[in-house]
Amino acid sequence: MTNHIVLFEPLMPANTGNIARTCAGTDTVLDLIEPLGFSIDDKHLKRAGLDYWDKVQINYHQNLPEFLKSVKNPKNLFLVSKFANQDYTDPDYSDPSQDYYLLFGKETTGLPEPFMRQNPEKAIRIPQDDDNIRALNLSNTCAIVIYEVLRQQNFNNLERTHQYEHDKLK
């Protein structure tokens, strides 16, 4: 089983760097759909990801159709959007034999509207108070959703405590 965080045309290097860090800490693949709004050599990107880049599997896709061809099982593709009707906690992500893909839109415009209209059953959302904010930060949104996926997978292959912390409790 492999989990994927997929970013559609990300614009902000700091968000992508933070998301790469989350991917490193959760053993999640990061898929980037071009064009990117920055160079992968950007100093803000590297600063946000610190020294985790070599611990993240990153796949680059020239466009959305190319990415979609790489999806092993389309039923396990989820489109994260504030306009979805089902919550991110509703789908079952627990099948250990499956790959799961969480597709997030660009920071300013989200996912393409025609694509969203063609796939409403794949759309998931994080409940939020739309009167107070337009949207949650992209890196925070990625973290919230991937940790729900991991929770349903019983945090497979992730340590629950560090040895140092465990020794302090004895």
From TrEMBL:
tRNA/rRNA methyltransferase SpoU type domain location: 4-147
InterPro entries: Alpha/beta_knot_MTases, SpoU_MeTrfase, TrmL, tRNA_m1G_MTases_N
Residues reported to bind S-adenosyl-L-methionine: 80, 105, 126
EC number(s) stated in the UniProt entry for this protein: 2.1.1.207
Pfam families: SpoU_methylase
Any one of the GO BP annotations: wobble position ribose methylation
Cellular component GO terms held in the UniProt record: cytoplasm
Signal peptide location: none
Transmembrane segment boundaries: none
Single GO term (MF): identical protein binding
PANTHER family in UniProt: TRNA (CYTIDINE(34)-2'-O)-METHYLTRANSFERASE
Task of the protein: Could methylate the ribose at the nucleotide 34 wobble position in tRNA.
Family classification: Belongs to the class IV-like SAM-binding methyltransferase superfamily. RNA methyltransferase TrmH family. TrmL subfamily.
UniProt name for this protein: Putative tRNA (cytidine(34)-2'-O)-methyltransferase
Organism for this UniProt entry: Lentilactobacillus buchneri subsp. silagei CD034
Name of the gene: cspR
